[in-house]
Amino acid sequence: xxxLPILEFPDPRLRTVAKPVTEVDDxxxxxxxxxxxxxxxxxxxxxAASQVNVHKRVVVIDVSEDKxxxxxxxxxxxxxxxxxxxxxxxxxxxxxxxYETVVRPGHIRxxxxxxxxxxFEIDPQGxxxxxxxxxxxxxxxxxxxxxxxxxxxTRIRAKLEKKHKAEAR
Length: 169
Ligand code: QAP
Ligand code: CO
Description:
The chain is an alpha+beta fold. The protein is built from 3 helices and 7 strands, in the order αβββββββαα. Strand 6 (108-113) and strand 7 (119-122) form a beta hairpin. The longest helix has 19 residues, at 150-168. It is globular. The mean pLDDT is 98. Bound molecules: 2-phenylethyl (2E)-3-(3,4-dihydroxyphenyl)prop-2-enoate and cobalt (II) ion. Residues 42, 44-46, 88, 90-93, 96-97, 127, 130-131, 134 line the site of 2-phenylethyl (2E)-3-(3,4-dihydroxyphenyl)prop-2-enoate (QAP).
C-alpha cells in the first residue's frame, strides 16, 4: 500500500504530455497498484499517472459505489461513436473542491491494454465514458477546467493558489 502525492492545478507539471508505455512490466503494475491505493484513499473514481507526476500513459478508474470494478487503461485511445453530447458535473483530484459542468461526446469506443498488457476494447456511455475522456485529457496535459469559461478557470486558479500559499506557511 502506497499513497502518492497528487499534483494540484495550476502546477505546470500537469501540462506534460505523457509517453506511451512500451512494456507492461512489474514496474508498471506497481504504479497501477499505488494509483488505485491513492484514488480509493481520496476517494476518487479516476486517476491518471500524470496527476502523480509520472508521465506515462496509465489510467485507473472505478466508477462503482463499492470499489468493485477496478479498471486499468494503458495507452488508451478513443473514438467517438455518435454525435450525441453529454453534460456532466466533473471534479478532479487535482482541482480539489471545485465541480463544473463539462460537455463531451456521450458514447465512445476505447481501446487500451490491461494490467497484463492484453489489448481490450469497450464502448462505454454515461459516467464511465465521461471519466475515461477526463483521464485521457490528463495524459495529454489537459484539465477539465480547460473546458469551462476562462472567467471560471481564473477564479478557480486564484482560489487554489491562495490555498497553496496558506498550506506552505
Ligand atoms: C474524474 O474525479 C471525474 O474536488 C475523477 O475534493 C469526475 O475522482 C470524471 C474528488 C467526475 C467524471 C465525473 C474531487 C475528490 C474526486 C474533489 C475524481 C475532492 C475530492 C474526483
Ligand atoms: Co482529473
